[in-house]
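INFO batch 0412 | record 1 of 1 | parsing
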Amino acid sequence: MQDTITIRGNLAADPEQRRISTGDIVTSFRVGTTARRRDKATGEWTDDETNWYQVSAFRTLGEHVFASLRKGHPVIVSGRFRLRTWESSAGKGMSADIEADAVGHDLRWGSTVYTRAPRDDAGADQPSGDAWAADGSAGSDWPTALPGAATSIDDQPASASEQQAIHAPV
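INFO prediction complete | emitting tokens
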């Protein structure tokens, strides 16, 4: 049985990448999730047990994960969950596996820069004028703000104090 699951946690190690028998690329990594709760009696934060998930990302998603994530990065993973039993000379066990549909950094803890990957088919089936294009190439009447740009959304120059407030750490 496979269910859809979304988790957030931290990478236990750098992702590993390999090519499987079909020729597809698969990137594997482990994510640990630990719930924290406040003990009402002491007022202290305590950690519950850590759940470990083995995540596999195939093809292009796997390539992007391998290029983007490193040990310790906080991530959000959504995908198909499966409990798998295993047996080896060391004994028997159960593994919590996720086949990832989407993976990204958890932006509660920092920021990241998005780089769109080039398309293999040169966008042949892409309609002209991408309404979501960040460069405003769609010809939309909506204003576009680019990250790190020195202007605000309505093209009025942002003051130095406004820029500092925008980029100040939280």
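INFO post-check: The longest helix spans residues 59-68.
INFO record closed
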